[in-house]
Specification:
alpha+beta; Sufe protein. Chain: A; FAD/NAD(P)-binding domain; Flavocytochrome C3, Chain A, domain 1; six-stranded mixed sheet; 20 strands; about 35% helix
Length: about 675
């Protein structure tokens, strides 16, 4: 059975989550600076007496030492001060570029735990493991420079002050997860008169909405005023057909018909989105990245907290409480300081963000082995808790939100070149005029699929963990001379705005690609791409089957010369010849998974259904956990993920409050 097998994988994931990371943006100037001393955390212990661990090594020398390590979004540089007793008295973060509200808070939390406990045995902060581990590595390096005894610091455990303690809380509605859907559910439930307790396992409010670009709110007042109105009936009909009828038509109708109201609801709460006519699609750009968490916190303060409820962060749900009749009656959770919370409630809303960071679970359910571009904390515990409480595993379980193409080379190149040059490889993955092959060397699509995000992502993922974009010397020469215009790019690469925000002034079709040859050589030297002076050598270096790639290359070159692609039907204007000689390069392109789609079956009141498709009393689900009712095997929307999160949260919170209050 699928459910038990996934349950085992979830247990494995609890170990793996330590190495999973969060996708991020640049640092947030409105966040507390990572170099500031944070306030005391619940699990902080009094500083250990160094003398209890043995003598100070003769090699130790007190002082201040600089060190650095690679974080999620670049290097984290620290300055660590140790006194004569080999005690860490201060950690200053000199530079970092971690995600605002996620990575920055993780840095502050880990800093405090290191200093308070004089220990390196600190657990990574949920959702920011790569950032946490980078800070630990940098401090360890500083200790080694000082001649300190690193093993002493690693042997000291962080003692959690709340271990063994249990607190009992009561609410009308308990919401698990404080992303867009969870916050919306908590706010709307409180507005209906319910006392709400919202718990979130990280220190951050907003979840993936803090990283998203735009949402779709059909026929919002702003969209209609902007002159764009969607035919609702046509949209619904096409949606159902495009998902092969394996969806809940009532759920789709509810979202399309009522998401426009969510725009006005958010605006009224102070969370202002901006309408954009995106090629005929009604997208609504979210507020400035650095303001989002504060806006959501203000919404919660004005509704949840004002109505007597609570917002409790750094608290992880462990299991659902159930009554004699199988009804869900609350949640057992654990706070950061080890305290167990037993929260009873008449309605429980799961908004835990899916399982995309659980790579074993994703591979088992969907066969995908690409990149997790979502949040590192989303490993599926919420689903497992709901399944254990009697929820059905949907028949279409496994779908993912594959939505962007990435070049493995980008991160390292950013340490060697300015952002525009470092992005040369990733920009090529979005252009239709280059030959794309799978790991075997076989061409697998009309490369015009790169012009549409969902088509690009899914055609690649269907053919392996990565694909290769083939670039020749003559093409690189054309890029150096004329930029993307030289390789007949029909338009700028369709990358998300955050991909080119740091070089928007250079992001032009006719801007020459200075030093492109050097950049691609660096890509190969870094191990993030391949080179061959001949196609045979390229195939060997890239691990492709020589015969398969040679045949694909020969056929592609013939199509470029004749203008007729008999294999995939690629348009003549996109068939760009490779030239007569090498070298040739292969860019490793991977697909970004922004989140899992579904896992719980819900009705239009967002009640979770059991194997008989009857509501599990007291249990609701919103956001990604419930999105499987909209899609079949994979996400095919644009802006629907975030639009549905806010809308399902708003409607689900109202329904849960009505159920709890007997309305």
């Amino acid at each position: 059975m699928l459910k038990p097998k996934l349950g085992k994988l979830l247990l494995v994931s609890l170990c793996l989550v330590m190495i999973l990371s969060v996708i991020g943006c640049s640092g947030n100037d409105n966040e507390p600076a990572a170099s500031e001393q944070p306030s005391a955390a619940p699990e902080a212990t009094q500083q250990a007496d160094t003398s209890e661990t043995g003598e100070i090594p003769a090699s130790f020398k007190a002082g201040t030492y600089k060190a650095e390590a690679d974080g999620k979004d670049g290097k984290i540089e620290v300055e660590v001060t140790l006194d004569d007793t080999m005690t860490i008295t201060d950690i200053q973060v000199l530079s970092q570029n971690e995600t605002a509200g996620i990575g920055v808070e993780a840095i502050n939390t880990v800093k405090e735990q290191i200093i308070a406990g004089q220990t390196l045995a600190v657990d990574a902060v949920s959702g920011a493991s790569e950032t946490s581990n980078a800070l630990l590595a940098a401090v360890e390096d500083a200790l080694k420079q000082a001649g300190g005894d690193v093993e002493v610091f690693k042997s000291r455990a962080v003692v959690k002050a709340g271990e063994g303690k249990t607190e009992q809380l009561t609410a009308d509605v308990v919401v698990v997860g404080a992303g867009a859907s969870g916050v919306s559910a908590a706010v709307s439930a409180a507005d209906k008169g319910a006392k709400v307790i919202l718990i979130e396992k990280t220190a951050t409010i907003g979840g993936a909405s803090n990283l998203s670009w735009a949402g779709k709110f059909y026929n919002s007042s702003a969209a209609v005023a902007g002159g764009l109105k969607v035919n609702v009936e046509d949209e619904i009909a096409n949606w159902i057909v495009n998902n092969h009828w394996r969806v809940d038509a009532a759920a789709i109708r509810q979202y399309v018909a009522k998401s426009g109201e969510t725009y006005d609801w958010l605006t009224g709460k102070g969370y202002q989105t901006t309408f954009m006519n995106f090629g005929g699609e009604q997208l609504h750009v979210l507020p400035a990245y650095e303001t989002r968490q504060d806006l959501l916190r203000a919404m919660l303060a004005e509704s949840v907290e004002k109505n007597g409820g609570q917002v409790i962060t750094e608290t992880t749900a462990k299991k659902l409480l159930t009554g004699a009749g199988g009804e869900v009656s609350g949640v057992v959770a654990e706070k950061a300081d080890g305290t167990t919370l037993e929260i009873t409630g008449k309605s429980v809303i799961m908004a835990t963000g899916g399982y995309a960071a659980n790579k074993e679970m994703v591979k088992e359910a969907f066969g995908f082995e690409g990149v997790n571009g979502g949040l590192g904390q989303n490993i599926g515990e919420g689903l497992q808790m709901a399944w254990d409480a009697g929820a059905k595993v949907p028949d279409n379980f496994g779908g993912q939100m594959l939505h962007q193409t990435l070049a493995r080379a980008t991160e390292k190149l950013k340490g060697q070149y300015e952002p525009f040059q470092a992005s040369y490889p990733v920009m090529l993955t979005y252009l239709p005029t280059f030959m794309n092959v799978g790991p075997s060397g076989a061409r697998f699509r009309d490369e015009a699929a790169t012009l549409t995000a969902v088509a690009a992502a899914n055609t690649s993922a269907f053919n392996g963990a990565y694909h290769l974009v083939i670039v020749s010397k003559s093409q690189i020469d054309a890029l150096k001379a004329q930029g993307m215009k030289g390789v007949k790019a029909p338009s700028l690469p369709g990358m998300p705005p955050e991909f080119y925000a740091t070089f928007a002034d250079k992001f032009k079709l006719d801007n020459p690609w200075t030093d492109a040859d050097k950049v691609f050589e660096s890509m190969v030297a870094n191990g993030d791409g391949y080179k061959g002076n001949t196609i045979e050598e390229l195939a060997a270096n890239a691990g492709m089957d020589a015969a398969v790639f040679a045949e694909a290359f020969k056929s592609y070159e013939a199509a470029a010369k004749t203008g007729v692609d008999t294999e995939f039907g690629k348009a003549k204007e996109y068939l760009l010849p490779m030239g007569e000689s090498g070298p040739y390069y292969a860019v490793i392109a991977e697909i970004n998974n922004l989140g899992s789609v579904g896992g719980l079956l819900v009705n239009t009141k967002f009640q979770v259904l059991n194997d008989k498709r009857v509501p599990v009393q007291g249990l609701y689900a919103v956001g990604l956990e419930s999105e499987g009712v909209l899609f079949n095997d994979t996400y095919v929307g644009n802006g629907v993920g975030i639009g549905y999160s806010f809308t399902s949260g708003r409607l689900g919170g109202e329904a849960a409050a009505a159920g709890a209050l007997g309305q």
